[in-house]
Design goal:
alpha+beta, two-stranded antiparallel ribbon
C-alpha cells in the first residue's frame, strides 16, 4: 500500500469518528432537552426568511372586435292567397232526444154513486088479473119431468108470476121449493109458455101489469 493511500484511509477514519461524535452529541442533546432549544432557534431562523411571490402574469389582451358586416334584411315572401270554399260542409249538430215526461196519474176517489131514484108507485089495481081456463091441466102426468120420475121426486111448488098488460107471464120466481130442481124449473117453464091471464085493470079500466101467486102440486103418475 502506498503512503498516500494510508494517509487517505487515516483521514476517512478520522472523519467517521468525528461524525459519530456529532451524532452522540446530538443524541445527548435531544435527551437532555437541548435539542428543543436548537429546534426553536432553527425555526426562528427559518421564520426570518421572506418568500417573495412572483408577480401575476399580465392579463391577456381581448381579441379585436370583428369587422362591421352590413346586415342584409331577409327577402319579403308574400303569403299564399286564402282560398275560400263557396260551399262549406254542413255542420252536423247532434241532437239528443228529450224523453217524454212520465205521466203519473193521480189516483182519484170516485164520488159515491147517487142513490137510486125511488121506484114510481105502482098503479092502484082496480081489477086483479084472472086465470083463463084451468092451469092444472098443464102440470099433470103428461108434463111431468122424466128426471123427477126416475128419481121419484114429487112435492108442492109456489111461484110468483108477473103478468103483463097482454095477459102473458113475463117473469116467474119460485118462493117455495119442492126440493126438486127439476120440478121447480118445470113449473116456471110451463107457466111462461102456457098459462094465460086476463090482465089487471086500474080505476080507469086500463090494463096494467100485476103479480099473481100460483101454487102447483106435483104428484108422481100412477103406472
Amino acid at each position: 500500500m502506498a503512503y498516500s493511500d494510508q494517509k487517505m484511509s487515516g483521514g476517512k477514519i478520522g472523519a467517521l469518528v468525528i461524525v459519530a461524535l456529532i451524532h452522540v452529541a446530538l443524541g445527548y442533546a435531544f435527551v437532555t432537552g437541548l435539542a428543543t432549544n436548537f429546534v426553536k432557534k432553527q425555526v426562528e431562523k427559518l421564520n426570518t426568511f421572506d418568500v417573495e411571490e412572483p408577480p401575476p402574469p399580465p392579463p391577456d389582451e381581448p381579441p379585436p372586435p370583428p369587422p362591421d358586416v352590413p346586415m342584409t334584411p331577409p327577402p319579403v315572401v308574400s303569403p299564399p292567397p286564402i282560398v275560400q270554399n263557396p260551399n262549406p260542409p254542413p255542420v252536423a249538430i247532434a241532437t239528443v232526444p228529450t224523453p217524454p215526461p212520465v205521466f203519473v196519474p193521480t189516483p182519484t176517489v170516485a164520488p159515491p154513486a147517487p142513490p137510486a131514484p125511488p121506484a114510481p108507485p105502482a098503479p092502484a089495481v082496480s081489477k086483479a088479473a084472472g086465470l083463463k081456463g084451468n092451469p092444472g091441466q098443464y102440470f099433470g102426468a103428461d108434463n111431468y119431468p122424466p128426471s123427477a120420475i126416475r128419481a121419484g121426486e114429487q112435492g108442492r111448488v109456489v111461484a110468483k108470476l108477473t103478468v103483463g098488460t097482454d095477459g102473458r107471464v113475463t117473469d116467474c120466481t119460485v118462493t117455495t121449493s119442492s126440493n126438486s130442481s127439476a120440478l121447480d124449473q118445470a113449473t116456471c117453464r110451463i107457466a111462461k109458455a102456457r098459462v094465460r091471464f086476463s090482465p089487471a085493470q086500474d080505476a080507469a079500466g086500463n090494463p096494467i101489469a100485476s103479480s099473481y101467486t100460483l101454487p102447483v102440486r106435483w104428484v108422481l103418475p100412477e103406472n
